Amino acid sequence: MPTLSYPGVYVEETSGGVRPLTAASTSTAAFVGLAEMGPKEATRVTNWTEFQRLYGTFIPDGFLAHSVFQYFNNGGRQCYVVRVTREEARTASVTLQNRAESPTSGVVFSAMSDGAWGNSLVLQIEDGTEDPGNTFKVSVRRQTDPIVVPPDFNSTPATEAFDNLSVDPESPRFVTTFLKAQSNLIRATVPDDNRAVQRGLLRGEVAPALPLETPLTFRIDLDGDGLQDVTLPAEAGPIATPEAAAAAIENAVRDLHKLKDSTSDAAFSGFTCQVEGDDPEKRLVLRSGTDSATSSVRVQSAGLDTAADKLKLSPAAGGRPEDGIALRRPARAEVVQVGDAAVDKPVAAVTAGVDGTSQMKETAYADAFTRLDNITDFSLLAVPGIGTTAMMNLGMAYCANRPLQDVFYVGETGKDDITPEQAATFRKGLTAPNSYGALYYPWVKALDPTGKAQDAILLPPSGYISGLYARIDSSRGVWKAPAGTEASLNGVVGLARELSDVEHGNLNLQGVDVIRRFPQAGVVAFGARAVSSDPQWRYVPVRRTAIMLRVSIYYGIQWAVFEPNDEPLWSQLRLSIGSFMMTLYRQGAFQGASAGQAFFVKCDGETTTQADIEAGVVNVLVGFAPLRPAEFVVVKISQRAGMASG
Questions:
Q1: Is 243 in the same domain as 376?
Q2: Considering the entire predicted model, what is its pTM?
Q3: Backbone angles phi, psi at 541, to 5 degrees
Q4: Measuring CA to CA, which residue among 473, 396, 463, 402 is closest to residue 436?
Q5: Distance between CA 593 and CA 588 in Å, rounded?
Q6: 156 and 225, same structural domain?
Q7: Which H or E run includes 513?
Q8: Are residues 376 and 512 in the same domain?
Q9: I need a labelling partner for 358 at 20 to 30 A (CA). Which of 108, 155, 241, 538 fits?
Q10: How high is the pLDDT of residue 363?
Q11: Are residues 472 and 382 in the same domain?
Q12: What is the pLDDT of residue 105?
């Protein structure tokens, strides 16, 4: 309320009393499985191209890539991917000697993730563009031929290239942190034993412009002490040789005094300037008197005087500084295979990437579920291709035991479960069935996306079905059963087994959702039962609608925490939740001729007693009449006899 002090109109915003609730997303899936490459933590993927960039392509011993591809192909918009690996999986790496050519010490480059895929990475190490004396450039290419690297491999465009990298941990382009943030292929480590240092130096460009008339002035900075003017004495006369210039510079710099107390006196007292090379390619080399990681020499022009340019020491004239830490950079290399290079200069060590061949147990996939514990915006879970009763039990148990019970498991029978009898045996083998999962049979046939197989290959249906769920949710709503003639599976060319109506009926009554082929509709999902013995939760859309309501209300009334627990709060809760339920009712989410028959929201002194108030609890009771699919449509046809014709 504003302070009322003058006559006039006062305007103040007030709440309308209804805090709107938003329906939770129901169509984001999470897939767990083997991949060619990629991170192990749960990662959001929004399209197939992004999946390929992060996780590679199709592999012969896993169905994760196939299923994610078909998920997007059937209507999925985004999903999470959790990569699992075998115990013996190892990351490809190569250790390149540093510029000091230490036999065992240098910079370690490794593949972004474990697996044999890293052995196909090829590195090129060059000097950096902006500061070639202190930085370096790494170009990464992916080898397509598994055996031979072409001689002109570096002429092909790099998959990734990172310029002006540094081995200085204080640099914003420190190779370790920069590649971790920017690269999808490689990582780098500068080991602690890479301690090579030198006296910071500045190597001038060849052939200074001589003779030079004195006095000559330029600015120099040693070890980061700060720029100071250096004036070569006039009495020295014309400088006609590089040697004379070197002697004059050395004497003049040694006469300077440090500007910072932290700078070592030796930086100036031990400073040298020498001539390197032979005529006509002699150059001046300036060296600090210290040999620490921070040792450095920098030269700039002083005002309009171009002495630093004439002596070829300034950056504009080609002067190239190398700091004390510069020796720790990786040695230059034209072609180095990560994980598959010969141990020969400049390669100091190699570790080959390995996928492993051991049999994966269901518990390995279930252990990966924990990486999804803190992710709340997915509602479907699948482990493509692992069609075992143990995996189905573990998947449904995880969904049912999540704190909010907000995920539904999309399961499948095994690849070898071809006959209806095998599918029925699979269903009977489930020891912990519940309504938080559905079982689909049989596997489907699709064209091999790699083009290696001419015949159709068998693929697990969970990726297709998850995409179908997303498509139906978007077009009709989560309360519509993801089955029927409109529930076509895109990309399917056949089934592992074509079923008759009788075989389908037997499996349907046992809670197995069958995929069928019909002449007019093609291949469709033709079952919508959850794996549950409770008739209240028999159908997939009923359970998934309840999940949507639970999650939507949970996040939609967080504002009520710590509000005064009395009738005004209860009224707001009734109004907010009731408005949300009414919106869903008008969309056709519930059965009932009126809203009163379709749902109710109760929050008052009956649901929340005085004891509850004293305990800080407010109870809201929400009920809804779920829509159940017309699974059996019975048409009765009769003939009327004795009708007169006319």
A1: no
A2: 0.88
A3: -65, -30
A4: 396
A5: 11
A6: no
A7: strand 512-518
A8: yes
A9: 108
A10: 96
A11: yes
A12: 85
Contact criterion met (CB below 8 Å) for 589 and 627: yes
Strand order in the sheet with 457-459: 457-459, 444-446, 494-495
Residue 283 lies in a domain: yes
- Domain total of the chain: 4
Buried b (16+ CB within 10 A) or exposed e, 520-543: eeebbbbbbbbbbeeeebbbbbbb
Residues 190 and 206 in one domain: no
- 164 burial via Cβ count (<10 Å: 0-12, 13-18, 19+): middle
Domain end point (choices 492, 526, 541): 541
Query: 142 near 122, Cβ under 8 Å?
Result: yes
Answer yes or no: are the C-beta atoms of 104 and 112 closer than 8 Å: no
Distance CA 40, CA 150 (A): 32
Please check whether residues 453 and 331 belong to one and the same domain.
no
288, 326 Cβ separation under 8 angstroms: no
Instruction: Give the pLDDT means over successive 10-residue stretches in the chain (646 positions).
Output: 85 78 94 96 97 95 96 97 96 95 90 95 95 96 75 83 96 96 96 94 87 80 95 73 90 95 96 92 94 95 75 90 96 92 92 94 96 96 97 97 96 97 97 94 95 91 98 96 96 96 95 95 96 92 96 94 94 94 95 94 94 94 91 71 59
* 550 occurs within a structural domain: no
Same domain, 155 and 132: yes
Q: Does residue 529 lie in a domain region? A: yes
User: What does the pLDDT read at residue 632?
Assistant: 67
Tell me how far apart the alpha carbons of residues 632 and 526 are, in angstroms, rounded to a whole number. Answer: 12
pLDDT at 235: 64
Contact status, residue 320 vs residue 231, Cβ threshold 8 Å: no
- Burial status of residue 593 (CB atoms within 10 A of its CB: 0-12, 13-18, 19 or more): exposed
State the CATH number of the domain containing residue 333: 2.60.40.4290
- What was the pLDDT predicted at 308? 86
Domain housing 635: 1-21+567-646
Residues 451 and 534 in one domain: yes
